[in-house]
Fold each of these.
Amino acid sequence: MALPLILREKLRLPVIGAPLFLISNPDLVIAQCKAGIVGSFPALNARPAAQLDEWLHRITEELAAWDRDNPKTPSAPFAVNQIVHKSNARLEEDLAICAKWKTPLIITSLGAREDLNTAVHSWGGITLHDIIHEAHAHKAIEKGADGLIAVAAGAGGHAGSMSPFALVQDIRAWFDGPLILSGAIATGRSILAAQVMGADLAYIGSAFIATDEARASDEQKQGVVAGRASDIIGSTYFTGVFGNYLKPSIRRAGLDPDNLPVRDASQMDLGAKATDVKVWRDIWGSGQGISAVKGVVPTAELVERLAREYAAAKSYVASLG
């Protein structure tokens, strides 16, 4: 199955900037789209809920103005991430606002709903559902999702535990639609590697934390710059769902990252507190690819680096004959 036009026609690179809880905002999304990759943000980042309408208005208008002024380098589409889990009391209201602005891409997480996919299709949008194993992938497609985001081992925040080689292989055995790979991708070489494995696009999150436009503290940005794969630890303790976090932020919160209790998924609380520590604000989600991040830069500069590395990697592969 060919990729939908929206995922190939205006993209400089085959990349989706992953929605970063608390961090992704209109500044980051607009910069990503202008640079030629899909920009995205969680609907829940807009607080109060009425702010979502303001954000979508601004993003839509600014990207339209960019397209008018830059017809040779039009902006990439943007996406809104919706948490489908029952704990999200805003879902219906947020989806209605997305319908108002005809949001081109909706990324769904923590649950698959046929009625949601139907609603998005009614305004011409496309749905991409993130999954961590094949069973969830089958369920998402059965319920009408257009594409899948395979969240493999090494991804930041809520992540899977499967090797990207195995996860993509299992999905491609039966699904030929849009497939995006997530997990420790922070270089142009790894973008190409994702495609060689069978994915259509790469899903990059943690590298964008360390950008000027990201709504993260200076401490968090510098934590990403200083961090390496060995500084990441996976745990269910903070939300009840397995996630990857930066060890230094856990230590700074007065906890021992090497001795965190196990928390059952039945106690899931995506905005949980561990004692007086707020997850995501104080405990920083991060993927294992951050050693490629060497400094805090504008989003356009980061995308430019990825583009150079991607082109160089393709040239190298071509030279192998």
Amino acid sequence: MIDQATRLRQLAVGGAFEELPAFAEVIGAGAVVQEAGTLPPSSCTTIAVTSGKGGVGKTTVSLSLAVAMARMRRKVLLVDADFGLASVHILLGLAPRRTLSQAMAGLCPVEAIVSQGPGGIHIIPGSVGGEGMANLSGADLLRIRGIFGSFEREYDFIIIDTAAGIGDSVTSMALHADLPLVVVTPEPSSLADAYAMLKVLRRHGAMRSAAIVNMAGSDREATETFDRLNTLVIQFLQSRVQCFGSLPYDREISRYVKKQRVAVLEDPTGSFSGKVQKMAWKVSGCRVIRRKGFFDRVMNAFQTRRGPNAADSPRTGTP
């Protein structure tokens, strides 16, 4: 009996589309990932971890990836970009003394909002329950550009943990990052939302995107999930998704989350940690594709559309 993944592959093979590479081949060969190299001293690579849907483990992935990259002696800043319902600091049991909103209001220096995280990473926590931070104006976003722009000169990597959904602020961050990394799970709703996110990014000119499969019950399920997503993108968007790996569904991870611990540090030799570390090596090999700062790119998109006081959707075309 032909399974759904096989049928989707058959749809993509006909006509102008070539046969899809198997998930294991992509991960093993690493052919779709740029070869790792030393980044220029002044460069900073931005990775926007997004999903289109909540509940897929996006924040856990962001945090695990940040810690794994710090273990590679990279200087990493993790930004919780869910400005209304932040959760990074909650997962770590941190109680930030200063917030982004205070820095924006001039109540504290920019450096004061950076928290020391586990494994040598630095964290800029978001706000919880702050309605004003969830509905930022264009002027607010310009102030954020000034705050974050200085950090791009200090870090090798900035990982942006975006909010869920495909709203303007989320898609702007994903669109203008050096690498938009979409988290998808085997659930049909997650697959649909991940495809919706990729569709929006492609519509606005993004030529590069990657995905990881989270909470996979087995390697085979991870393979099928990625193949379904990639086939949809090939068939309907005439594009491809780069594969950056998969992470297993593991009850131990849930226990670490409840204990406010990071699995990569608590169990560095485990299967989950090994796959995260492999993913980190692949991500670290992605070179900066734009020299202009990430936050400048995001803010310019808003300004180009309707001027400095508007917070509108991302501009069309390649940034």
Amino acid sequence: MDFILALLGLVILSPIFIILCFWIKLDSKGPIFFKQKRIGKDKSYFNILKFRTMSIDTPHDMPTHMLSDPDQYITKAGHFLRKTSLDELPQIINILKGEMSIIGPRPALWNQYDLIEQRDQYHANDVRPGLTGWAQVNGRDELEIDVKAKLDGEYVKHISFLFDLKCFVMTFYAVATSKGIVEGDGT
């Protein structure tokens, strides 16, 4: 089902993809896409795809909320893409490749050892990561690592079509309200 929905989404959203590609290229120099090493199912590695929202001199492999001044790195187009979560759209390609699902725990950075270890307790590393998920719609960046891992575990424990549907619908509310987005470490 993930493959069919992702393929359908890619076809429907292709005009938006094209517009965003041009905007990113015109806004700042560098590639259109951003690739980053993430943890997949069974702790395998894969490169997640996103639209690039930051300048090419941004420190790599660091969550944005840990940067002391992320605004200095975020491009003009990037502010809009991040606020609307449109920067996540290229992950449809990760879904088509079988590396991700539409719903599941968000893929941890390869070096987020604390999150990876906490998720092991709840078997959240045993499922494909998702474009959105239970932790995403319940706080996103605002969540402490242990809370995020516990929510990911709740998802794994209760995986079902209806629970996925609930997460999917709640995602639209979370995106529309920018719920749980934290940019910078607050200093």
